[in-house]
């Protein structure tokens, strides 16, 4: 009898990683177990950079990565880490920040914003805005152009980047959103299609939203629900095809484009949520492309904010 099962949409390499990660990852609900699992999986090393220093930005701890001091017109990236708003931090995303700084020639400021459920919405977006203001004020001292500040984030950090761009578009030259959650209602088709079997489950995402709090209809919770997206800075949206969040990202890209925002969309087939930080060709390619996009923000003839 022939096997009528549909082919696996994940690449063989991605499937092996997905199954291995799923086997060791706790289910939703246990904050301590989830944080421990995230910390355990953060051992990947990134490239060397000229300096890494810790600071405090208006009360928010930050880590500053400088790839090679010398120029005064470099982009400055405010990076907001993922982790469902409940886990992770600069340590878990150290390799990503190092790689982005080195490849883009940009100073990267990684924000250690407050986490839920101890600090529910709007603590995290308020911290993100605080760090943005701090970074803008110190851009020149960091050897960067204050007109080339870019927001970037993965997963829940992508949500925070999008929200911060909505709150202060005049302060931002670009936004890079890696597979962001953008709608707390979770009513897109990809939520059902990839609900289980692709590491990041619909049950996990629903619990993250519940832990985070806030009104699901508020645009600073669910940016996809914002009534007007005109005037936002250029965006690069990077999505995994096999992800409950895929359709939210696609919908946001369509809305940005319809609002006249310069929006570049990259949809990576055969990979799952979180692929940016994994040893997969798509992850390396996505990071290189994002670094190239960041390096071009604010230069003549390339994406820049209208502000």
How does this model look, in words?
The chain is an alpha/beta fold. The protein is 34% helix and 20% strand. The chain contains nine helices and eight strands. The chain has helices at 12-23, 31-40, 94-104, 123-137, 156-167, 189-193, 202-212, 246-258, 281-296; strands spanning 51-57, 60-66, 74-80, 107-111, 144-154, 174-178, 235-242, 263-272. An eight-stranded mixed sheet has the order 1-2-4-3-5-6-7-8, with helices on both faces. Helix 8 (246-258) links the parallel strand 7 and strand 8 (263-272). Helix 3 (94-104) packs across helix 9 (281-296) and helix 4 (123-137) crosses helix 5 (156-167). The longest helix has 16 residues, at 281-296. The termini are far apart. The model is unreliable at 300-307 (pLDDT under 50).
């Amino acid at each position: 009898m022939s096997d009528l099962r549909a082919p696996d949409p994940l690449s063989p390499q991605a499937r092996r990683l997905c199954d291995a990660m799923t086997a060791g990852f706790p289910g939703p609900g246990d904050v301590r177990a989830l944080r421990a699992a995230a910390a355990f999986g953060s051992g990947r090393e990134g490239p060397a950079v000229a300096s890494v220093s810790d600071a405090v930005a208006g009360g928010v701890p930050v880590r500053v990565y400088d790839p090679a001091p010398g120029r005064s017109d470099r982009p400055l990236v405010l990076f907001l880490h993922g982790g469902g708003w409940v886990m992770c931090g600069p340590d878990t995303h150290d390799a990503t920040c190092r790689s982005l700084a080195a490849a883009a020639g940009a100073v990267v400021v990684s924000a250690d914003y407050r986490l839920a459920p101890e600090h529910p919405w709007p603590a995290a977006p308020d911290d993100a805005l605080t760090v943005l203001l701090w970074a803008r004020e110190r851009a020149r001292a960091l050897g960067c152009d204050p007109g080339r500040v870019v927001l970037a984030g993965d997963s829940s950090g992508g949500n925070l980047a999008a929200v911060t761009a909505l709150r202060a578009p005049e302060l931002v030259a670009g936004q890079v959103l890696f597979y962001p959650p953008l709608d707390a209602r979770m009513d897109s088709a990809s939520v059902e299609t990839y609900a289980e079997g692709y590491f990041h489950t619909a049950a996990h995402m629903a619990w993250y939203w519940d832990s985070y709090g806030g009104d699901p209809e508020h645009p600073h919770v669910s940016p996809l629900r914002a009534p007007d997206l005109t005037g936002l800075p250029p965006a690069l949206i990077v999505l995994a095809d096999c992800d409950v969040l895929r359709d939210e990202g696609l919908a946001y890209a369509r809305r940005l484009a319809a609002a006249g925002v310069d929006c570049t969309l990259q949809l990576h087939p055969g990979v799952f949520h979180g692929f940016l930080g994994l040893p997969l060709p798509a992850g390396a390619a996505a990071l290189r492309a994002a670094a190239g996009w960041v390096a071009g923000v604010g230069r003549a003839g390339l994406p820049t904010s209208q502000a």
